[in-house]
Structure formats: C-alpha cells, structure tokens
Amino acid sequence: MNSNTRFPDSGENDLPRELVDLARAIASLPDEHQTELEGVYTRVVDSVKRRRRILSLVQEALAQLRLDIKYLMFDLEVTRKERDELKERLD
Fold first, then answer.
1. Three-state DSSP class for 91?
2. pLDDT for res 9
3. What pLDDT score was predicted for residue 7?
4. Percent helix, strand, coil in the chain (nearest 5)?
5. Residue of 9, 7, 12, 14 lying closest to 55 (CA atoms)
6. Where are the domains of the chain?
7. What are the contacts of 5-14 at 24+ separation with CB within 8 A?
8. pTM value?
C-alpha cells in the first residue's frame, strides 16, 4: 500500500510530526492491521485539527477583547476628563 494515499503528510503540514510518523508506521503494517488503525488515526487527526481551530478562535477572541478593553479604557479616561472640566466650569 502506498502511504501517500491513505495517510498524506505532504498537504498536512499542520499535523504534528509525531502524527506523520504514526501514519508512516501504520502504512508499513499489513493491510488487515492498517484498516483497523486507519479509523482511529483519522479520528485523532480530526481531533487535533478541531482543537487547533478552537485554539485559534479563542486567541482571536482574546486579541479582540484586549483591543476592546483598550478602547474602553481610553473612552473612560476621556469621559472622566470631560466630567472634571464640566465640574470646574460649574464651580
């Protein structure tokens, strides 16, 4: 069996090296063992990709939250300055 057909690593640079090595090891097994492990391997790869997508989404959300907090802090500072100026005018 050709390892490039069932366990491609050329187009999946995002996979950890260990998973690529595992795919090669599975590809070197006899066919009956390959078919047993192929489904498990596919689920592990899907899980790794899903976790990376989730991590990426969380990192993006945190970056956006940090930016929003900076804008809010700036707005709060300006609002306080305006409040203090208005108090001085009233006094």
1. coil
2. 46
3. 54
4. 80, 0, 20
5. 14
6. 3-90
7. 6/34, 6/38, 7/41, 12/45, 14/49, 14/52
8. 0.67
Read off the tokens for 4. Answer: 């490039």
Backbone angles phi, psi at 2, to 5 degrees: -90, 125
User: What is the crossing angle of helices 17-27 and 31-90, to 10°?
Assistant: 160
Q: Kindly list the averaged pLDDT for each block of 10 residues, start to end, along the chain of length 91.
A: 49 80 94 92 95 97 98 98 96 86
Task: Please report, as a single letter, which amino acid is at residue 27.
Answer: A
Paired tokens of 26: 């599975």
Q: What is the C-alpha end-to-end distance of the chain, expressed in Å?
A: 88
Whole-angstrom distance, CA of residue 23 vs CA of residue 36: 13
Alpha-carbon distance values, 89 to 7, 76, 80 (Å): 74, 20, 14
The token pair at 21 is 């090595």
pLDDT score for 91:
86
